[in-house]
Hints:
The protein contains 4 helices and no strands. It is mainly α. Helix 3 packs across helix 4. The longest helix has 26 residues. The C terminus is likely disordered.
Amino acid sequence: MLTGYWVALEIHGVEEDSDFVHTGPFSEWLWKRLGMSYSSALGWAVEIERAAEQANTPAMDMFFALLDEFRAERGNAAEITGAAR
């Protein structure tokens, strides 16, 4: 669904930042979180599916758990950065 959304944005000339593009903040965070030493050419969704299969966990459950963790860490980083100003 997200890929279709980004394609539609591109077709209609709409520029929008997203954490979930292939090389975006979520991907960069995820590679480290999953212990990967390099980015995946297959994308973050496939890597979450693989990790979920290995953990015998539904992929959607793992995605939302990781998303919550990402947001919590990102929020803490923003608070620290904001406090330093």
